[in-house]
Structures are given as structure tokens and as C-alpha cells.
Amino acid sequence: MKEIRVGIIGGGMISHRHMTIYSNIQRHAEQLGFTAKVVAVAEIDAAKLEAWRQRYGFDAKDCYTDFREMLKRDDLDTIDVCVHNNLHAPVSIAVMKAGFDCYCEKPISSNWHDANMMTEAAKKLGRKFHVQISSIMTPQSRVARDMIARGDLGDLYYVNLHFFSQRRRPGYDLPQFTTDFYTKKVAGHGPLIDLGIYLISQILFVTGVPELKSVSGFATRGLEYDDRLIKDPNGFTVEDFGTGFAKYANGMTFNVLGASAGNYRDYGLTYILGSKGGLEITGTDTTGGKFAAAANANAATLFGGAPELTFFGDQGGRNVTVELNCAENGNLEELADPSKLLYNDNQVMWLAYKLGILNDETRYNTPEIAKNMLLLTDGLFLSSELGREVTVDEIKAMSKSMAITDQETPFGTIHYDLDF
Ligand SMILES: NC(=O)c1ccc[n+]([C@@H]2O[C@H](COP(=O)([O-])OP(=O)(O)OC[C@H]3O[C@@H](n4cnc5c(N)ncnc54)[C@H](O)[C@@H]3O)[C@@H](O)[C@H]2O)c1
User: Fold this and answer.
1) Could you tell me what percent of the chain has a pLDDT over 70?
2) Is 95 exposed, middle or buried (0-12, 13-18, 19+ CB in 10 A)?
3) 109 backbone dihedrals φ, ψ, rounded to 5°
4) If I label 117, which of 44, 128, 131, 321 is the partner at 20 to 30 A Cα–Cα?
């Protein structure tokens, strides 16, 4: 049985979910034909590192405050990057430059420029690179993609994606999350990239990643804030609201609206309209499916409810509405074709890709999907700034790096050299 030895960088909240997934992979090793073991961890905060060490029973020699020391080891097969958004590019590039293939948390980065830099680094350095987009690793997304590719919806002309929370700002209303989620320097942007990476990427995935032409958008920190609740000295500096209208070369238009807070009720509304049919997507999985949940528990989905699809169309001139039971269809699909298991979890797909069981054609190209998603959001922010519609060429030309190049740590400054 092939065992992949993993080193984790960043021992915060999401690293624990990654650990749950690795332990579920171990439980399903027979079925998968491979397994993975986390053998080293790096975390700049010594107290957090020690808590991590005790929780997972690691030896002190396998725990590092400086990840660059961990990268000197020769017994690691891959590195799993769990630091925050604007550290994804510098840390992933350092990992790949040190000779490792790399798996990185979402969002690949906060902007197209840095995402492009990461995929270019992977290409130039000859490393495998994959990112977390759990929303596309589901039977729901596969069924929707297959229906659209088969022509069940006909020509696509409109997508509506709204995700609105009355009060759901990580680190502010939700204190269990780090305040890094709302500081521009670290997070880059607000809900459009935080949850948007799941929801916008899902739309691009199911519609075949169409070619973007232009975007018109508006983004703001619209609400009044209570300074007493802002715990970060840098302030709350990301948007809490953004909306945009994108046009694609295939004729599809895309209306997106995302808010982490605003004076309206929580709601999500996602539907795709085509000349022959429409599809509603509900309960998108933003947590990673069954491997991400502790044994025998269910993964959470956005706005609750199981991931489902509803098809609207006509049969012989009569309107029909068809519910597609995604969980049940997913189980049947896996029974009929066990390789589908490789498509139901990010880390499983990453390990299968790393081992060559999946290749560049058969894995989902998560970095490219994430890059296309960031073209849309960069376009939305740029349009908001300039007060006019922007073309895809303008978005690429004006996308600015937000990568952190000098990081202050308790043991000194880490300088990231982004040349590769
Ligand atoms: N928290 C969640 O539920 C969640 C869910 C999905 C994705 N994510 C993504 O995961 C990433 C991390 O989020 P989080 O909630 O785990 O944040 P976190 O702050 O809890 O964890 C990040 C950790 O990285 C450490 N770190 C920073 N720089 C480091 C370095 N150079 N070397 C080693 N360690 C370093 C920090 O000290 C911190 O402990 C974000 O990009 C976020 O979007 C988080």
C-alpha cells in the first residue's frame, strides 16, 4: 500500500479539518488503494504548535516554527499549505522551489495576478499543484456539469448566484475565526473570494469554464461597524458586499452577489438558465463532503440542506420540474464505478494526482478553475474602482499582487523571494 508522507504548513483552524480528512483517508485506504500520513508540521506560533503537537501526538523533532527548516527534510512526499490567503502564493512558491509538489487551501490567492504566478511557478519548476475547492468535488457538481455538457439545458444565457448573510463576518460576528479574514493585508478581499471561491468556482465548473469577456461590478464595506468588535489593530478593511455582472464569450451572462453582512435576511439563490432547461443548485457543499466530516457525521452545507439540484424544462410541450437526488445518485455512481471516489474529496484527488492515478486530463484542474474565478472577482473590484465595465484584457493587465513578501514572526522576518 502506497503511503504518502505529508508536511503541513500552518497549524490553525483549517489544518484540523485537513487532519480529519487524512484520518478518514486512512480508514478508507483499502478502498482507495493508497493512504497518507502527516509526519511533520510547521506553525510560527510556538504555543499553537505545542497544542497541535499534543493533540496529534507528534514528536517535538517533527514540529517546526520555521517552515523553511521543515522543507530541508528528505522524507516528505508533499506539502499541504494551510496558511492564510495572501500567504498562499509566497509559501506555495517557496514549497515548490524547495522541490515539493504542493496542495494549497482555498482561495488559491486573493487575486488573479498571484494565482497566475503560482500556476506559472508550478509549470516552470515542474511541480504538481492542486488547490482546495470542495464545492466541485461532489455528485451535485458532477451531475450538473454532465447535464449541461450533454445539452440538457441548451444554450446557456444567464446565471444567478446570490449568497447573502445578514451577519456572518468571520473574525467579527463569528469570533471563532481569525481576524485575518477581515484584514485586507492578509485576506485580500471579503465574501466574494472567501465563500465566492466555492460558489463562483462551482458555476464555472458546471458550465465548462467559459471564457470571460467583461465585468461590471460594485463592492463596498457597506455597513456601520462597532469599533469595540474590531479586534485587529489593522481594522476591518475588506468589503462586506459585492455584486457584479459578467459576460462570457459563449453568450452566458453571470449575475453574482455576495455579502457577509447587510440589512437583509440570509438567503442563497443559484440558478442557471438555458434555452432548453434551467437548473437550480441548493445546499452547495463548502466543507468537503463526507471525508471532511468526523466518522459518521454529515458535512455542513451553505444555508443548510443537502446538496440538491432541481431541473426545470418541458417534456412534450408540458412544463416539468425534476428533483435530482444527488446524494443517492452519488452513492450509486460510486458503487457502479469505484474510481468516482477520487472525485468526491479534494485531498483524495490531490493524493491520486500526486501518485499519477489521476493525471492533468483526468483530475479537476483546480488551479485553473480558481484562476478563472479570480478573473471575475478582480474584474468586479476593478470595475467598482474605475466606475465602468472592464474587459478581460484590462483585468489581467491591472490585477495587482497582494502576496506578502515580508512576514513578521516571533523569530524574525521571513522574506519571500517570489522569483522562480
Ligand atoms: N477556518 C475555516 O473554517 C476555513 C475553511 C476553509 C478554508 N479556510 C482557509 O484556510 C486558510 C487558513 O485559515 P484558518 O482559519 O485556518 O486560519 P488560522 O489563522 O486559524 O490558521 C493559519 C495558521 O497559519 C499560521 N502561519 C502563518 N504564517 C505561517 C508561516 N509562515 N509558517 C507556518 N505557519 C504560519 C498562523 O500562525 C495560523 O496559526 C485561509 O486561507 C482560509 O480561507 C479556512
Assistant:
1) 98
2) buried
3) -165, 180
4) 44
Q: Where are the beta strands (DSSP E) in 208-326?
A: 212-220, 241-248, 253-259, 267-274, 277-282, 308-315, 318-324
The superfamily (CATH) of domain 135-341+364-368 is: Dihydrodipicolinate Reductase; domain 2 (3.30.360.10)
Q: Residue 296 has what pLDDT?
A: 58
CA distance 299 to 306: 9
Ligand 1 pocket, residue 285 CB under 6 Å: no
The finding on whether 125 has its CB within 6 A of some atom of ligand 1 is no
Boundaries of every domain in the chain: 2-133+403-415, 135-341+364-368
What values do phi and psi take at 133, rounded to 5?
A: -140, 85
| Model pTM above 0.85 | yes
pLDDT at 67 exceeding the cut of 90: yes
- Can you tell me which atom of ligand 1 is nearest the CA of 85? 41
Q: Is the pLDDT of residue 63 over 70?
A: yes
Average pLDDT, the chain: 95
Dump pLDDT digits (tens) for 280-320.
Answer: 999 998 888 778 877 656 655 666 678 899 999 999 999 99
- Average pLDDT for 215-226: 97
CA of 82 from ligand 1 middle (Å) equals 5
Is residue 381 within 8 A of residue 238, CB to CB? The reply is no
Half-sphere exposure of 368 (CA within 13 A, CB side): 12
- Asked whether 82 lines ligand 1 (CB < 6 A), one says yes
Structure confidence by residue, pLDDT tens digits, 236-289: 999 999 999 999 999 999 999 999 999 999 999 999 999 999 999 999 988 887
Please say whether the structural domain 2-133+403-415 has been given the CATH code 3.40.50.720.
yes
- For residue 145, report the distance from its CA to the centre of ligand 1, in Å: 31
Query: Using an 8 Å Cβ cutoff, are 288 and 265 in contact?
Result: no
Q: Confirm or reject: Cβ of 416 under 6 Å from ligand 1.
A: no
Q: Which of 9, 13, 177, 231 to mutate to test the pocket of ligand 1 (most atoms within 8 A of CB)?
A: 13
